[in-house]
Amino acid sequence: MAYTIDRYPDQGSPRLGAMNLHPIAESVPRARRWFRKFIAPYNPACSVDDCALMISELVTNAIRYGRADDPWTVRVEWFREGTSLRVEVHNPGFPANVRLRHPDANDAHGRGLLLVDSIAESWHSGPSRFGGTVVSFVVADAWPS
């Protein structure tokens, strides 16, 4: 199996869903599709397409830069925090120094976090509670108050 989905979080939990994806290119569109499918019942007021785009960028980075000696997965989780939506993407390996890059016009890569920075209310990176690195973003006013 290339992925697992957690559709039924605990009652009262702010976590709305989660998925584990193998670090392969096919996981990027799969993450977009499954996020759209499993966020829909919560009727967010924010742009699900924008969120799916940011998830694509972060899952791509996690696959590209995640490292582990053992087989590993990329974990994506999404949470409701008041009126905001927070999405986390976890990848294995030592906590990376994640930073915004400012690529030249001819650079083929390096724009993912710039895109997240321009769309999300905020973003953060640091050590993951699963080990490795987590990069998260927050979309404000994802639900009416």
UniProtKB/TrEMBL annotation:
<keyword id="KW-0418">Kinase</keyword>
<dbReference type="InterPro" id="IPR003594">
    <property type="entry name" value="HATPase_dom"/>
</dbReference>
<dbReference type="Pfam" id="PF13581">
    <property type="entry name" value="HATPase_c_2"/>
</dbReference>
<keyword id="KW-0723">Serine/threonine-protein kinase</keyword>
<dbReference type="InterPro" id="IPR036890">
    <property type="entry name" value="HATPase_C_sf"/>
</dbReference>
<dbReference type="InterPro" id="IPR050267">
    <property type="entry name" value="Anti-sigma-factor_SerPK"/>
</dbReference>
<feature type="domain" description="Histidine kinase/HSP90-like ATPase">
    <location>
        <begin position="26"/>
        <end position="137"/>
    </location>
</feature>
<dbReference type="GO" id="GO:0004674">
    <property type="term" value="F:protein serine/threonine kinase activity"/>
</dbReference>
<keyword id="KW-0808">Transferase</keyword>
<protein>
    <recommendedName>
        <fullName>Histidine kinase/HSP90-like ATPase domain-containing protein</fullName>
    </recommendedName>
</protein>
